[in-house]
Design goal:
By secondary structure, the protein is of the alpha+beta class. The chain is elongated, with a radius of gyration of 24 Å. The chain starts with a helix and ends with a strand. Helices cover 35% and strands 17% of the residues. It has 2 domains: 145 residues, Hect, E3 ligase catalytic domain fold, CATH 3.90.1750; 109 residues, no CATH class. Keywords: DNA recombination, DNA-binding.
Length: 299
């Protein structure tokens, strides 16, 4: 028991030292590790000790192009599409390349050779005070004892350019609805067979049900066969298949489906047809899988 207490105390002491060390590095503008802000790269500190951040010649021009595109009226989705078409690495992949590591990784249960730009990724880059050369911690500018922003290097945008950009982004976001936590049963469960991406619930005006739809375009991706299906049909099918495979009559919630590794894949439907299409889902377009304790069961 005493050895365990000593080990725990040593762990707390080490954690406190590391936290204090990183805080000290932030206050003097030295790079202490973590994701390098887009537009910068790690360089030797002028003092000869440690590292700092300096503008990255390969991405500074890209930052300026992004800002110019936004000012010209292009949407963030359109700008993200251009960056993806030009094979420009996202900040996470750029950081990996600078460290000599492979790009990509695992996200939302899928493996990627590289990640793609989205409007969300762009928004984070454009709203970060690091564009002004500020040292950032948890998304906020680090200030010294006198209240002056701590700098990491030469700014990529002037104060005036950055403030003007923020006003533009704010004006575009005015009128948008605040994001709320989804209550849709199949979020992170339903996916599109055309691109492998998640499907999201979209309400139908005046209807008690909605649709689960492929949102590849919102991720600045191209899906060659975007799928969609009525929400009540897809939810009923999923719950029925889950109960058949698990032999349970208990209520089925989204968390239950997620914990059991449930996944329903929807393929694109066909236009036209007759009244029979209103009777229910075309199950030939659906595939349900369930993963529990490493074992995978396919319907």
């Amino acid at each position: 028991m005493e050895l365990a207490q000593v080990a725990e105390q040593e762990a707390h002491t080490l954690s406190a030292r590391l936290t204090s060390s990183h805080a000290a590095l932030r206050m003097i503008g030295r790079y202490g590790g973590g994701l390098v802000p887009f537009g910068y790269r790690k360089s030797p500190h002028p003092s000869g000790a440690g590292w700092c951040l300096t503008p990255d010649p390969d991405t500074v021009a890209i930052v300026r192009e992004i800002v110019d595109d936004v000012r010209s009226g292009l949407s963030l989705v359109a700008v993200a599409g251009r960056l993806n078409d030009a094979d420009v690495p996202v900040p996470r992949d750029r950081h990996a390349l600078l460290q000599g590591r492979p790009m990509g990784g695992r996200r939302h249960g899928r493996d990627f050779d590289k990640f793609r730009w989205t409007s969300g990724t762009l928004s984070k880059v454009l709203r970060s005070p690091s564009l002004k050369g500020h040292r950032i911690h948890k998304g906020q500018t680090v200030h010294d004892a006198a209240g002056t922003p701590v700098l990491i290097g030469p700014p990529l945008l002037t104060e005036e350019e950055f403030d003007s950009l923020q006003e533009l982004l704010k004006a575009r976001s005015n009128g948008s609805h605040p994001r709320s936590r989804t209550t849709a049963l199949l979020t992170a469960v339903a996916c599109c067979s055309g691109c492998g991406g998640r499907m999201y619930f979209a309400a139908r005006k005046g209807c008690s049900y909605g649709d689960y739809v492929c949102r590849a375009t919102a991720r600045a991706e191209k899906c060659l066969a975007p799928a969609a299906m009525r929400s009540d049909w897809l939810e009923t099918y999923t719950v029925t298949r889950y109960r058949e495979l698990t032999a349970t009559g208990s209520p089925v919630s989204r968390q239950v489906l997620l914990d059991s590794g449930a996944r329903v894949t929807v393929s694109k439907g066909h236009r036209g047809g007759n009244s029979a299409r209103l009777a229910g889902p075309d199950t030939s377009r659906l595939s349900f899988t369930l993963t529990e304790k490493g074992a995978r069961s396919d319907s």
